[in-house]
């Protein structure tokens, strides 16, 4: 996993970035800056919670590195009143607001754009209050998933929460955009386990589920926060997990029958016991027996039970994988998070409190949904294409179980029954530069094109949390609705209509907007 260093970053595109930061605040910073927006902020913040500010101007090449560096620093709203002041003043001074919690947006939508903007960073609003008696917790938007998991496990060894596998992802973006993790076959999506929320709307009002109403609550549990307001916190429902669970990671190359195993995985993974989640990763490696490249299949699994039961379940349902007791690691649910994050499982679990993601890389992601198993010939072709392209990775996440039971209208996330699994297309690279960037982005586009016969159609579905600007961009002008519909139906299918109605009602002037936000209805 790496951070997000969006390929679209170009100093010339970035004009103003106002960062709210306690560390750089001083009265002179506010007055010397020739910026009425800052005055407005100061004026609108409560004296008991003074607002902090700092200004960066982006007229030289260092700006993107400044921006990058700031991502790793503490910049932030410290109190709800700061969020309220930002919303009011941004409208008054016609500034675009970017909301950032964990900063893990795949397209940098939380901190990059082409018009003047400022970033409202939620980093400091990150408290986590776990109540085991009621099996709930209030988690603020700026907390990371790793922190949430750690704080739950601190209070109970038999509770967990079904959210994403990357511990540095932020609550704000992750939950508002849907959120899935390796317990989804048992407990559904993250948003299927959210029971209340606190949000500041376009008028600066702090709302909870009761005062915002069921429509708006529905919208911010999968429709993305950045179209509707600033999420302050969510109340989540904890789930039960056994004290001991089992994980494994098993790899097979093409020479080890990977195609046959992958073929069987398609039948098994979406249908097997809900306690078992088997992720399947496909990549290209050097062959050990041959000078050429070969395809490698990696099966990474979480089983909510002990290894003995797992091995017997696998022997019965998926003997082709040949899972052995020695492949299995019995551990706690919290440690399984470390394992799934590709961190050595013997590391101290405190690593989950580390908000710094692994070394900076550039990345591109795309997604697809598969509704029918792919034939062996189809799989062979995909493998061949992968080897030809070399540097792209597929990740297949099985659905079924609880995912197939929840109606597609229960939350804005529509990809439920009928989907066997989701595909993530993945390209990571370390070198900057347009040529390299184009090369890697092309790989994902070529693969996406190649997969057309195997995936959902009309619309070709995509996962909103895997933001992909290839699906369409909104310029938020006159064609707002028409442009928004292009990507909107891919992410939300029929739920797009309801999201647009809610958006039009609560933010008619489209203050909360980005490249792929929910549009308002044309008037
Ligand atoms: C390494 C990695 C692993 C991932 N793994 C998973 C996974 O296992 N499961 C999964 O579902 N997703 C996963 N994702 C995707 C992730 O859930 C989304 O990118 C998510 O939006 C990130 O949230 P954030 O707060 O970290 O991001 P940010 O970049 O801060 O925000 C993302 C979006 O949400 C908006 N937003 C953020 N905070 C708020 C707020 N408080 N109020 C309103 N809007 C807000 C932003 O404006 C932006 O549009 C992964 C991403 C990465 C980079
Ligand atoms: C600050 O607020 C007061 C009262 O609301 C208003 O009269 C004044 O013009 C504001 N000043 C600025 C700089 O916005
Ligand atoms: C340009 O970048 C340099 C650092 O490389 C910095 O010292 C300087 O202040 C920047 N200029 C402006 C106008 O921001
Ligand atoms: C794979 O082989 C190439 C040469 O064919 C070599 O440059 C590369 O380092 C190898 N990669 C790994 C991971 O061994
Ligand atoms: C190496 O792999 C290629 C392509 O899969 C195959 O045609 C060839 O026979 C293999 N050679 C050896 C020595 O295994
Ligand atoms: C994990 O760390 C332990 C202790 O440092 C080490 O012995 C082991 O080889 C590591 N495992 C992996 C898979 O790197
Ligand atoms: C990427 O694809 C575009 C259009 O398909 C093409 O013009 C360009 O040359 C490709 N770039 C690379 C580096 O492959």
UniProtKB/TrEMBL annotation:
Query: FAD-binding PCMH-type domain: from which residue to which, for each copy?
Result: 67-241
Q: Which domain of life is it from?
A: Eukaryota
Query: Required cofactors, per record?
Result: FAD
Give the molecular function GO annotations.
Answer: FAD binding; oxidoreductase activity
Q: Mind telling me which Pfam families this protein's record contains?
A: BBE, FAD_binding_4
Metal-binding as a keyword of this entry, yes or no, is no
Q: Which UniProt keywords apply?
A: FAD, Flavoprotein, Glycoprotein, Signal
- The secretion signal range is 1-29
Q: What does the sequence similarity comment in the record state about its family? A: Belongs to the oxygen-dependent FAD-linked oxidoreductase family.
Name this polypeptide is given: FAD-binding PCMH-type domain-containing protein
